[in-house]
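The freezer alarm interrupted the setup, so I double-checked each line after restarting. Inputs confirmed:
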Amino acid sequence: MKKKYEKRMASIAVLEEGFRRVAYIPNRQIATTVYLAHHLEKPILVEGPAGVGKTELAKAAADYLQLPLIRLQCYEGLDESKALYEWKYGKQLLYTQLLKDKLDDIISRKNGFSSAMEKLHQYDDIFFSWPFLEPRPLLKALQEKDGAVLLIDEVDKSDDEFEAFLLEILSDFQVSVPEIGTVQAVTKPLVFLTSNNTRELSEALKRRCLHLFIPFPEAALEREIVCRRVPGISERLTRQIVKFIQDVRELELKKVPSISETIDWARVLMILHAEVLDPVLVRETLNSFIKFEDDVGIVTEKLHQLTAVAIRQ
Amino acid sequence: MERVLGEFITAARVAGVRISISETLDAARAMEMVGYGDRALLKDALSISLAKTAPEKEILGDCFDRFFSFDFFDGVPGRDCGAGEDSPPLAVDSPLVRLLMEEDRAGLTAAMTEAARLENLSQIRYFTQRSLFALRLLNRMGAGDLDNQLQALRAVDTPAAAAAAARLEAAKSYLTDTVRRYVQNRYDLFAGNEGERRLDSELRLVKLSNIEQRYFARIHNLIQRMVKRLNDLHSRRRKRSRRGILDFKRTLRENISCQGLLFSPSWKKKKIDRPQFVVICDISRSVLRTVRFLLLFLYGLNQEIAKIRTFVFCTNLVEVSGILDNCPVDEALTRIQGGTDIPLIMGRTDYERSFGDFRRNYLNVVTRKTTVLILGDARNNYNDPCPEHLKAIYDRARRLIWLNPEVPAFWGAGDSEIRKYSPYCTLVRECNTLDHIDRLIGALIRT
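Predicted 3D structure, all chains:
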């Protein structure tokens, strides 16, 4: 089965270049994983600390491959009717009311009860057919003709039952709708699952996926990311910001700042027309990347030292 | 190349990465995709398809480096043997000798790995096999020819021949050394953790009172794993039964007001009772260790799975639930034994007084839903056992289970009163290994 975007997946280098064009800077491991996932037709389970670009990866993939991004946000209590499909009950009721006269006709023309029943039986499936089906993200992803990028976000927040239910989709790219039958994927979607490790995922789920762990990026990579994401920022400031953040990550904080916070901070500094870091500026903008009171205390204590090191960059 | 992957996966499994067959297949396909050309790429591909957690990735990476290391023949000797320039007329007829003389590292490595393949080196299991495998590998590589040549050279009595012999000798000892190192490397890969794993499975069965202090950390680890399994098993079941299936009768009843159209379905709900445990432990020295592990187990359980109240006794009985709820079991036990903040007398064990204490002060804790666990050896120092107190508890409880850390052969011997108590127990069990505790608690929270 040839996919429309086959060309964009020709090699790892092409893929890496393409991701860069849509302003997502992958390390080689990320590119390799996406490449393999496409060719092996396997879902990718992405893990890593919050804010390193797990969700962003799926978005970038959709952007680059020019596919629709279908997103399913998981939460506790999420079930099939929210994730897969639901019958349009309202429409069904409305139609039965509208067709009431029609039904009377069908039934009354027949004399016997049993023959009326028989007649009715010929129609019963009408109300459980595609027009009355409301596809939810998972079904939608399977129905996309040219394929899609399916993002199942924070799968660790869902219940065990839902996780088990995902298995069918992830391994065979098909779902069973009892009233209609098994629905096969038209074109197999590229699936990303993200997890923050709030609970251990089941072995069965992990086995079906390729596993990608995105760590905090190295300084060089992070600088590149900031440059891409915050256009117009000077190289000197980028260096200083990244050095500062990388040093802050070494401290023992409740929540260490991740890439998304680095970018936020860079944007904040851009708005303030800052050219270089200085302690006062850092203190005033600290809350854009440190989110806990205790952490603010710890960083403030070492602020001068950290800034001094960063400025030397 | 399938074989290489197979061996690598064996090595990774030994190192502690869990790899299933489907993952093996994925890895094989991934390897086809990326090829063997780029080492870093290959490593990435394997780590993506085989390892499924961050720590596993680390182990796998390390394993990869060790498995695919081919720099065994680094510093090739021979140059410094004196007979460098006037290369003696060596009648080179064995390929091994030629490889050694020409210092062909790649050739030597290839010969060695090929020999390892033919000799099934990946089957190595015990450290005693190392010399045997090294010898077999050497023979396979043609060390016999090397020896023959050496002997032939020694028979000729010229300086040149002597120099050549010395050079060959050095090369031989170097070769032997390298093969030994290689075998050791493979042994570490394929059998390194074998002993450790065996230890784990044995620790489950060994008597708790006999476990040495140095294994405690390991035992804690084991207990954590066992408890996690129990938690996983039972939290899942609890959730399912909470939701329930469609309650058709109730749905009909409630929707009568909508002309019988089924607008709002209602579901059957089952109320799940958390098992309630009352644990009464003898903490005299003879039983203390078992108590410790039992408590570790019980307090590892999810709060949602079980409700626990704990009492300890020696001469008298006191409640210690508060201490155990607030600090880890180890710390709690030392505090209890130290007895500074609780009125516990650590004299002779007195079952009569202790059970009497319980009956007088805490009998209302025991209800129809309570499972009472008593852990003790029932050795009452020849005092009156007074089973009436136990009967009073037994009558109120759902069930009363007595865990005895002694083997059944000693029950009733000497001052053991277990025979007098057993009529008032639903069950009397021997309990002195981790396996006993695991099985017991599994059975308890299942019902």
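Quick read of the result. The mean pLDDT of chain B is 80.
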